[in-house]
Amino acid sequence: MRIALLALTLLLSACGFHLRGHGLKETTFAFHSIYLQVPAETSFVSGLRSGLKRYKLEVAPSPDKADIIFQVVSESRDKQILALSGGGQVNEFALYYRVSFRVYDNQKRDWLPAGEIELQRDFNYDNSQILAMAQEEAQIYNDMYSDAVEQVLRRLGLARPPANAQD
Known about the structure:
Elements: H1 2-14, E1 33-37, H2 43-54, E2 58-59, E3 68-84, E4 90-104, E5 110-124, H3 130-158
Parallel strand pairs: 1-2, 1-3
Antiparallel strand pairs: 3-4, 4-5
Helix pairs in contact: 2-3
């Protein structure tokens, strides 16, 4: 029995099996610098700055010093009641986060089609633990910002100059 278990372990380790990584380690970006045109420094924007630095992309101080411009067109979050108890108290919320963006160069040529990321998380609520519920809600929003940043970074990995850019 032990020999069979050892053989199985060796086979799994020898076949090249590994857990799928998180991130864009092998992505080659078609640009080296990016300018972030944002209305405000939000948690999403801060996370995006960190993500760009993690992939060694320069965040340019002005649009004319950048290869591309990432414009946050809009960013919003919302909360809707999903369920009420028999006594009229909230039992469940739906939390929404949405960010719309454009990616273009200094000649206003789109490197990616205008995009939008919309995330939703359901959130069970307990009126007897108001402070804990507020902290949990904030954590869920932070997780959504991180998820949106990763999705944007994946899309930026696909960004390429427009076909007519060589003209």
